[in-house]
Amino acid sequence: MGYLVTKEKRLYFENQPVLLRGVGFGGWLNLEGYLWNLVTPYDRSRTIESLIQEILGSEEAKEAFLHHYEDCFITEEDFRYVASLGLNSVRVPFNSRRLWKNGALVPEEIRHLDDAVKWGKKHHLFVFLDCHAAPGGQTGANIDDTADDFPHLFTEPKYQDELVHLWVALAERYQSEEWVGGYDLLNEPLKPEYSPYEARLLPLYRRLVHAIREVDPHHMLVLEGSHWATNLAPLSGLSPEEMHDNLLFQFHKYWNAPDRESLSHYLAFQKQFNIPLWCGETGENNRDWYALTFPLLEREGIGWCFWAYKKMENRNGFSCFSVPPYWNEMESYSQGGPFPRHGKEALQGLLDSIQHAEYQDKTASACLRLPSTTIPAVSYDDWEVHTPRHGGVLFRETDPVSIAFLDGHQGAPNFHCPAGEPFASEDAMCVSLEAGEALIYHLSTPTEVFVDIVPHGDGVFRVTVDGKEGNQFFLSRGVKHLLRIQSEKDGSRLMSVELNKPH
């Protein structure tokens, strides 16, 4: 029997290197209002539950609805789809308030984690258990389901005790499950305004690690930094022995530049302590940003997990369900409007809509460079250039490649597109190439496929894959292919490369 383990900067399973590529099942076992198009105060599980109970009339009816919802929001079919894309992992956020009551795991809730582990094993997906909402709240925001946006976990010992008991119970339950990738101990602890409590984070992690290791010496333990999991500094106090006790260090990345410079502080931490990194959440943007971000992480040997897999209406995830009938009444009520007259119908429609969710293959293709998709030219993996850098775009600044805005202005692009909206026209970029200069892109597919490759821009370009010239190529399954786009003319501007399945 093998387990996912760390060795210096890499992960291994049965002595084979593993780069995590996966999705996060946000909204399944911990409700978040924005995934349902709801806003404050219905932005977290406890208030959404209270709204459901108000509409349905009793706690029993509310619980029955939630059980139906959890049964259909994520099913084995979702695991099958994720695996079919060539991904290898899923992150399952859970809410401790619902999972752990009166010192025991709640049978109606733990069965979903049991299912996730079972389906992960069947479809060869590592399952990461993610404590997204800890007892008392660890973040101080809606995502941790606190009642008052304060991280009581770090001020009240009773909540820390409860968290330890919960993780020990989970570790005892799953200690022999090899397809449990690891235990993600706390999601996004301590948002910036609560930084005075950062000194309490590492002692709590140490306590959790010690308690879990008493019952489960095998599974990887995942530690996230503070400030929305962007600051790893509070973890630097770990000793070398602690650092290498099968720990994985997680950060999150949203709405910023998808270049190496944006990762510099994480890479410096990795170099200093010789440990592996995982970008456990990134997404919530448009497909061009995905086509830039996920190859960037892989170039640096950093595993990733896309957030969020499934959402209402918004198609910038991997799965999308339509807005149910009468849902506008729910949205209006969350914004201070009248009580929903057709609330029951809206909730039933939600269940129906979820069961008819549609996979967003274009999103997956953008993340994974699968046909059919468009690769922005500036998402190159390597280069062959001989002229000095020019262009004036403050992006990938340490590369010698010349990057320019199409309209000729200078400055930094705006990558903040949280609803999946396209980049603004003034942020359109290209790569300037002289004759003989080339850009290189890595391609890999989970299945064998023929693909048409078409460069777009101003100039003349020569296309080769693995040294063979043409416009149509056969890509073998699971093999890294090298796509090379060479300029045949001085002053060429390459904007993008289109990958299409031949008709």
Q: Top keywords for this entry?
A:
single chain; 503 residues; alpha/beta; TIM Barrel; Jelly Rolls; 2 domains; eight-stranded parallel beta barrel; six-stranded antiparallel β-sheet; 14 helices; 30% helix
Structure explained in plain terms:
The protein is of the alpha/beta class and 503 residues long. It folds into two domains: 5-201 and 214-366, Glycosidases (TIM Barrel), CATH 3.20.20; 369-500, Jelly Rolls (Sandwich), CATH 2.60.120.260. The strands form six sheets. The chain has an eight-stranded parallel beta barrel with strand order 4-5-8-9-10-11-12-13, surrounded by five helices. Strand 8, helix 6 and strand 9 form a beta-alpha-beta unit. Helix 3 (76-84) runs parallel beside helix 5 and helix 11 (287-299) runs parallel beside helix 14 (361-368). The mean pLDDT is 97.
